[in-house]
Amino acid sequence: MIKDILNDAETRMRGALQALRDDLAAVRTGRASPGLVEKLAVDYYGTPTPLMQLASISVPEAHTITIKPFDASTIKAIEKAIQTSELGLNPNNDGKIIHLGLPPLTEERRRNLVKHIGHRLEEARIAIRNIRRDAQNDMRDFEKEKLISEDDLKRGEDDLQKLTDKHVEEVGTLGKTKETEIMEV
């Protein structure tokens, strides 16, 4: 029973980490990255569709992203999605391919991005702690119903804390890596 609770908690914690990784991939650093635009929602015949389903995205140079739509008629919709996004980029197209030039980040913009990442990291830590709390409550309920012993509860809570610490530490590692990427000039 405790093993099931711990497995479920670990799966949910991994999910929180993956959501964080996806969010951090979309945060602009000094370098071009397909992750910056691939999840961008494009209005495709009235349906918000991720850009990666409508075009191939490549990075030919450190400060350039090229987007080649599978269907040339979507070029205007893709440009509009980029312009209305929070990326602050101006797309140029030659009729077939959209070019995105990434200007260097200003010091102030870098600091704001680091602050934004800090908030996102804290949200991930809170999500992981909430998962821990739910698992602890489940274990305590089992103990109250005499389905597990007090010793089992204690062992389960210790294992759960180790799991939580491991995932919170990973959040910190992801944050440090992304912060270093952003502050790199």
Describe the protein:
It is elongated, with a radius of gyration of 22 Å. The N and C termini lie far apart (51 Å). The protein is α+β, with helices and mostly antiparallel strands and 185 residues long. The mean pLDDT is 89. The longest helix has 38 residues, at 107-144. The protein has helices at residues 2-25, 75-84, 107-144, 150-183, and strands at residues 41-44, 47-50, 55-61, 64-69, 91-93, 98-101. The protein has a 4-stranded antiparallel sheet, covered by helices on one side. The chain is built from 4 helices and 6 strands. The protein folds into 2 domains: 2-25 and 106-183, Ribosome-recycling factor (Topoisomerase I, Chain A, domain 4, Orthogonal Bundle), CATH 1.10.132; 34-101, Gyrase A, domain 2, CATH 3.30.1360.40. A hairpin with a 4-residue loop joins β5 (91-93) and β6. α1 (2-25) runs antiparallel to α3, α1 packs parallel to α4 (150-183) and α3 runs antiparallel to α4 (150-183).
CATH H-tier superfamily of the largest domain: Ribosome-recycling factor
> In terms of structural class, how would the helical and strand content be classed?
alpha+beta
Order of the strands making up the biggest sheet: 3-4-6-5
Major sheet attributes? 4 strands, antiparallel
Strand segment count: 6
CA gyration radius, whole angstroms: 22 Å
Residue-averaged pLDDT: 89
Count of DSSP H/I helices: 4
